[in-house]
């Protein structure tokens, strides 16, 4: 919407006699000049008072910039313009603040994680590796994550997609309202609570033991609402004319849904599912409570303890040695890469298979 | 990703009036889909029920007051545990996160809708989505090994110049900032994406005519935002913040890695110590006995109830707003 906004500011005041700024407008380079001065002062103050944290330098520079902008504009233009400019610089500051943590996080993870990340790290487990040893790997954790997430998806995707179909194609009345509301509320269930529920239900009451599958059950609870939400949005985008055409040809409703509605929305649904997978792949808390952790390779998700990538990171972090930290960073890099690739591919599919309507 | 803010259901299913012959396939399929809807409700009910059953048995065995006891010694005989410290820590860290994240998130949303050049706005939306995709354990690792050492300067600076506020006073200057304040900052980064995304959707719905009217009256861009955009978007932003709050309340790993937890309930936010529900569960689960696990489940039930209320309220506000904006469109 910004493109429709005019940049012309109301300048009805007469030009100030003797001012070089005939329309009481600051020159275009003024904000940049103030920024440069503010940064220079910030660095100078930081050096002079020997402030250790560079964040403080930045904050001082930012404060000086906002103050400088306000004073200069208030003097050269008027109060209202000054407020406007301050708001603009604050909004830009918010933008910078959003980028800084992500950059720092990715940069740190990459810098610390890449040096141990090699073929050996990806193909070995932690069997027999002590906290202070170099080496060890994430193979067992990758296996665990893939199996747990795969099982969780196998259960959650059909339930989620069917629920979305119910909400869009069938649902009316109180039941549909209740389901919509609780899907929303379910989105907000803390992951540790879903872990506790499976612990109480599956392990304490039904008496099963810790396993990868118990972890996937908790992931199912976290995954269903995400799948329902995104599938629902996609089904709503399918034009009604398609449904009507199919029904008018005498096709039963269930075949209409399976053969017309779902294929039309398939790209979007796939995207939603992949984003949901990316989300649960990074969940630590339920896994922590339910799969128990295991330094050795266990290919069977139904029997015995397993590990998983997020669990592995936490475990290595708790060990607290330099070697373990290094392994944690490398595993974090593997996990981030996995999640980011899923995200990028999902968005690629979304763009490639974008529904014909709604854009 | 999809948070339903807009769209007034464009697809009411066809064929309401004329009832088609119900075929077997139809009945099976609609039964299946209704069944999964019902299953969802059953799961929610089961979560509450199972947690409640275990919680009751734990609380009845508690030799302290469950609500006011500070320490968490569920494995001891007699077991004494309470949620006072956890409740305090959870609320305080979440409030800090909200105070930091909400203004910034609204700023970013405004930046994307009103200030940024189109392309930059697109790139920023992408960056925000990536922020949302980073797993919480990675935030935790980064927070503990990068943020904590780097916040030392800020912490001691706050202690030196704002120590008189008591809240920002450090009892032992120079200790590593594994405190609720750092947790709050980390949580703020983590809940930024959801608040930004929901706020942006709401701000996008502000009728163009309102903004044009304000501009035509000679308002500056900021005055337009303050007088036309923000009032319209206020309730949406409030519910976006509450969704963020729900996230912050239940976050586990980032707190478990950063905070050095203890049984201390302290007003000094910069002192290490305290705890949150989720982190306490993660930390104590390993060595918990049977009763210990039930005690943790009891604390989980409290957390579940809190997030349920917060999220439910947020959704209700959004739902009410949807009708309102529909009438305006």
Structure description:
Chain A: Pfam families: BPD_transp_1. Chain A: It is found in: Cell membrane. Chain A: Keywords: Cell membrane, Membrane, Phosphate transport, Transmembrane, Transmembrane helix, Transport. Chain A: Belongs to the binding-protein-dependent transport system permease family. CysTW subfamily. Chain A: InterPro entries: MetI-like, MetI-like_sf, Phosphate_PstA, Phosphate_transprt_permease. The complex is a heterodimer of chains A (359) and B (329). With 359 residues, chain A is mainly alpha-helical. Chain A folds into two domains: 110 residues, no CATH class; 214 residues, MetI-like (MetI-like fold). Chain A contains 13 helices and no strands. Chain B has 329 residues and is mainly alpha-helical. Chain B has a single domain, classed as Orthogonal Bundle (MetI-like fold). In chain B, 70% of the residues lie in helices and 1% in strands. Chain B has a two-stranded antiparallel sheet. In chain B, strand 1 and strand 2 form a beta hairpin. In chain B, helix 1 crosses helix 10, helix 6 packs antiparallel against helix 7 and helix 9 packs antiparallel against helix 10. The longest helix of chain B is centred in the last third of the chain and has 39 residues. The two termini of chain B are 24 Å apart. The N terminus and C terminus of chain B are likely disordered. Classes of the chains: A mainly alpha (359), B mainly alpha (329).
The helix content of chain A is over 70%
Order of H and E elements of chain B: HEEHHHHHHHHH
| Structural domain tally of chain A | 2
Strand content of chain A: under 5%
Number of discrete domains of chain B: 1
CATH architecture heading of the largest domain in chain A = Orthogonal Bundle
Q: Biggest sheet of chain A, in brief? A: none
Largest interface: A-B, 118 and 118 residues
The CATH architecture of chain B can be given as: Orthogonal Bundle
* Gap between N and C termini of chain A: 16 Å
Oligomer: heterodimer
Q: Quick check: average pLDDT of chain B?
A: 83
Write the CATH homologous superfamily of chain B: MetI-like
């Amino acid at each position: 919407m910004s493109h429709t906004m005019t940049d012309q500011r109301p300048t009805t005041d007469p030009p100030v006699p003797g001012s070089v700024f005939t329309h009481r407008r600051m020159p275009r380079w003024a904000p940049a000049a103030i920024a440069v001065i503010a940064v220079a002062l910030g660095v100078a103050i930081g050096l002079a008072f020997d402030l250790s944290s560079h964040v403080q330098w930045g904050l001082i520079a930012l404060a000086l910039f906002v103050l400088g902008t306000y004073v200069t504009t208030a003097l050269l233009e008027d109060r209202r313009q000054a407020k406007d400019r301050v708001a603009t610089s604050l909004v830009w500051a918010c933008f910078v603040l959003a980028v800084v943590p992500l950059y720092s996080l990715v940069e740190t993870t990459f810098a610390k994680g890449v040096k141990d990340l090699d073929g050996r790290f990806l193909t070995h487990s932690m069997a027999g590796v002590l906290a202070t040893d170099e080496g060890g790997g994430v193979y067992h954790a990758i296996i665990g994550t893939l199996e747990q997430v795969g099982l969780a998806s196998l259960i959650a995707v059909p339930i989620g997609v069917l629920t979305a179909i119910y909400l869009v194609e069938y649902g009316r009345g109180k039941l549909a309202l209740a389901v919509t509301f609780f899907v929303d509320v379910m989105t907000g269930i803390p992951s540790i609570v879903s872990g506790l529920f499976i612990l109480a239900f599956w392990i304490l009451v039904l008496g099963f033991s810790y396993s990868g599958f118990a972890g996937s059950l908790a992931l199912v609870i976290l995954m269903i609402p995400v799948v329902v939400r995104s599938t629902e949005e996609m089904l709503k985008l399918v034009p009604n004319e398609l449904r009507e055409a199919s029904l008018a040809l005498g096709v039963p409703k269930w075949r209409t849904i399976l053969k017309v509605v779902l294929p039309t929305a398939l790209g979007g649904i796939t995207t939603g599912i992949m984003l949901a997978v990316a989300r649960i792949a990074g969940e630590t808390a339920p896994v922590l409570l339910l799969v128990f952790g295991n330094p050795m390779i266990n290919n069977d998700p139904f029997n015995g303890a397993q590990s998983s990538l997020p669990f592995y990171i936490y475990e290595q972090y708790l060990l607290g040695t330099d070697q373990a930290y290094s392994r944690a960073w490398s595993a974090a890099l593997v996990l981030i890469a996995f999640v980011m690739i899923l995200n990028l591919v999902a968005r690629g599919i979304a763009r490639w298979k974008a529904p014909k309507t709604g854009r | 990703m999809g948070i339903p803010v807009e769209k007034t259901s464009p697809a009411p299913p066809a064929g309401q009036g004329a009832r088609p012959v119900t075929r077997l396939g139809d009945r099976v399929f609609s039964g299946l889909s209704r069944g999964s809807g019902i299953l969802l409700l059953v799961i929610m009910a089961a979560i509450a029920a199972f947690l409640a059953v275990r919680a009751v048995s734990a609380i009845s065995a508690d030799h302290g007051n469950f609500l006011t006891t500070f320490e968490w010694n569920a494995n001891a005989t007699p077991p004494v545990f309470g949620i006072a410290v956890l409740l305090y820590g959870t609320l305080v860290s979440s409030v800090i996160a909200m105070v930091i994240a909400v203004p910034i998130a609204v700023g970013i949303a405004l930046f994307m809708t009103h200030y940024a050049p189109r392309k930059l706005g697109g790139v920023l939306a992408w960056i925000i989505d990536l922020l949302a995709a980073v797993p919480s354990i990675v935030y935790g690792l980064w927070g503990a090994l990068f943020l904590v050492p780097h916040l030392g300067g800020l912490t001691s600076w706050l202690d030196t110049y704002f120590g008189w506020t008591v809240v920002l006073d450090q009892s032992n200057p120079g200790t590593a900032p594994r405190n609720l304040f750092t947790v709050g900052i980390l949580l703020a980064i983590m809940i930024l994406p959801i608040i930004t995304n929901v706020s942006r959707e709401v701000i996008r719905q502000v009728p163009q005519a309102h903004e044009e009217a304000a501009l035509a009256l000679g308002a500056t861009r900021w005055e337009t935002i303050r007088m036309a955009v923000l009032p319209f978007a206020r309730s949406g932003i409030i519910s976006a913040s509450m969704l963020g709050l729900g996230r912050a309340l239940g976050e586990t790993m980032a707190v478990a890695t950063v905070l050095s937890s203890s049984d201390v309930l302290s007003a000094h936010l910069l002192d290490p110590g305290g705890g949150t529900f989720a982190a306490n569960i993660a930390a104590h689960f390993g060595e918990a006995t049977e009763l210990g696990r039930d005690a943790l489940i009891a604390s989980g039930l409290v957390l579940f109830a809190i997030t349920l209320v917060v999220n439910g309220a947020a959704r209700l506000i959004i739902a009410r707003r949807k009708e309102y904006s529909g009438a305006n469109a």
